[in-house]
Amino acid sequence: MAKWMVSAKKADFNAMAQRFQIDPVIARIIRNRDIIEDEEIALFLHGTLDNLHNPRLLRDMDKAVAFMLSKIEDKARIRIIGDYDIDGVCATYILLGGLRACGAIVDTVIPHRIRDGYGLNDTLIEEAHRDDIDTIITCDNGIAAAPQIAYAKELGMSVIVTDHHEVPYEVAEDGSRIEVLPSAVAVIDPKQEACQYPFDGICGAVVAYKFVQVLLEEYAREGMPGNKAAHEAGSCLKQNSEELLQELLEFAAFATIGDVMELRDENRIIVKYGLEQMVHTKNMGLKALIEVSGLQGKPLSAYHIGFVLGPCLNATGRLDTASKALQMLQSEDWSEAVMIAGELKELNDSRKEMTRQGTEQAISVIEGGNYAEDKVLVVYLPDCHESLAGIIAGRIKEKYHKPVFVLTKGEEGVKGSGRSIESYHMYEQMSLCKHLFTRYGGHKMAAGLSLPEENIEEFRQTLNQNCDLTDEDFEEKILIDVPMPLSYVRADFVKQLKVLEPFGNGNAKPVFAQKNVKVLQGKVLGKNANVGKYKIMDEQGHTYDMIYFGDMDNWHDFLCNNFGEVEKERLYHEGSREIVIQMIYYPDINVYQGRENLQIVMQDYAK
After folding, report:
1. What is the DSSP code string of 497-531?
2. Mean pLDDT throughout 435-446?
3. DSSP letter string over 312-356?
4. Whole-angstrom Cα distance, residue 538 to residue 598?
5. Which residue of 215, 470, 486, 583 lies most exposed, with the fewest beta carbons within 10 A?
């Protein structure tokens, strides 16, 4: 069972509520997100696109744009090299749209997950050289590719890096860190120590979006010196760049959610406006994906991107080639867009089943092996499709609440992905044993790696020897925003909760708690019997509809263990008066056949 904790952060919630015309409970939730100053609160509640940070604060931005404009003027061949996940595909699409709007001769390459692996490699550099590419611009990769960028330079090519991942470093004799930056013409990455950008939590697609913002601005302002046609195009672009940036914002938002960035600071604004625009998207491919997923005409939330649409883009990079996802986004033919969107959905459905099988296999390895004392789980599944390692690692992390690496057998050695818990910085811990890897990279919560098969056991032992996590770190915690009686739940309050959206990583959907709740009557719904719907009663005798989307087997075990099998059966037949629980919940409004009905969504329960 998870440990319940009540957030106890202090403030004058009534005064805050009066200042911002919100409910005091809403004020308390905002304070729980460590949003304290009036300016921060106003930005959280009412932030607009005008509040996005100045992209020119990103280190090397002006240098990169000036260099790129000179290459566009020279008619140099430019290649975008992205990545095969949601962030990489969206970043590639954003750069391609911006560069083409400026008249660039540009193409794209998205590495094949299995054949190429993550990011730049010598083969991609050599292919670019054979294709007479003059300039490479990376997106969502490149910061860790110093050798490959040096190789490109030797072959006479120039490279601009746009990335958001951690900067590799070496440790000096005095213990200080020395960044290892690639020898690119320009390196745009907010994680650089010398970068003055005020928020380093943006994804690769947002970095690409910022680059395009400045590129379009400079192109429209200056045009191409000595080129009358381009100069006229620049004047036209000044009128159209806002529309282009509006379209590209959707993909910056899509990637922010898909790459599980924290929805705070400007990410919150990008996602809020991007989601609103996606409902009416002009992009044929995205519109087709929304339709084949059954979401047309419906409001889109971060959930839909993270768990419905986004995985379809990811699936093509996992089981096929991410170029197909990019082709869908570029499509201007509805029939083609729908066909590709359907293929992506089918791939994702196949990926789900393969993930289920891989997760069961990983659990079997852990339960049947000598993992009981391991604080960091390293699971080797040689026959698992290597593209599923990260998803399976995430599932295992959720089950055991430990940092997890899932390794698979690749064409050259072993490849793997890791998913972490909040108290474990995965990238830093990997850096302590980097001699074991042929390649590695990532950040605090996730990482990827390649290593020789013979190094697996040493990798596992080294991680665990260095690990200083305590038992408390492994304990799953649910942070309750407000212990709030059900009687406080009103339709206007539930609607006001929407001012806190979008919800996601870094801005979790708020949860509340109530004691002494009687569960009176219930029924099990869904073709897989995986949803429970109930009538409940509070201490004042008021009744409410409640729904539960969690693990029904565990819920029924809880009922039997605490109230008996007979009482559990009564709950689903004649009704019960003996089942009294504590619960963590979220209030919602259920709309059915045009009628609105208050509904309590149970998140967790206890005796």
Report:
1. GGGGPSPBTTBPPP-EEEEEEEEEEEEEESTTS-E
2. 85
3. HHHHHHHHS-THHHHHHHH---HHHHHHHHHHHHHHHHHHHHHHH
4. 15
5. 470
Q: How far apart are CA 161 and CA 310, in angstroms?
A: 25
Q: Which domains does the chain have, with CATH numbers?
A: 55-241 (3.90.1640.30), 369-474 (3.10.310.30), 478-606 (2.40.50.460)
Residue found under tokens 């120039």: 158
Which residue intervals of 456-596 are DSSP H helices?
A: 456-466, 471-474, 491-496, 552-563, 565-571
Provide the Cα torsion 237, 241, 242, 243; round to 10°: 100
Spatial contact of 295 and 304, defined as CB atoms under 8 Å apart: yes
> Whose CA is closest to 447, among 465, 428, 466, 468?
428
Q: Using omega within 30 degrees of 0 as the cis cutoff, is the peptide bond preceding 111 cis?
A: no
Distance, in Å, from the CA atom of 96 to the CA atom of 437, rounded to the nearest integer, reads 33
Q: Residue 337: what residue type? A: A
What's the pLDDT tens digit per position in 260-279?
899 999 999 999 999 999 99
Is the alpha carbon torsion for 463, 468, 471, 475 positive or negative? negative
Phi, psi of 439 (to 5 degrees): -155, 150
pLDDT score of 226:
43
Side chain identity at residue 455, one-letter code: N
pLDDT band at 227 (very low <50, low <70, confident <90, very high): very low
The HSE-up count of residue 85 (CA atoms within 13 Å, CB side) is 22
Residue 57 has pLDDT above 60, yes or no: yes
pLDDT (tens digit, 9 = 90+) per residue, 566-601?
Answer: 999 999 999 998 999 999 999 998 877 778 889 999
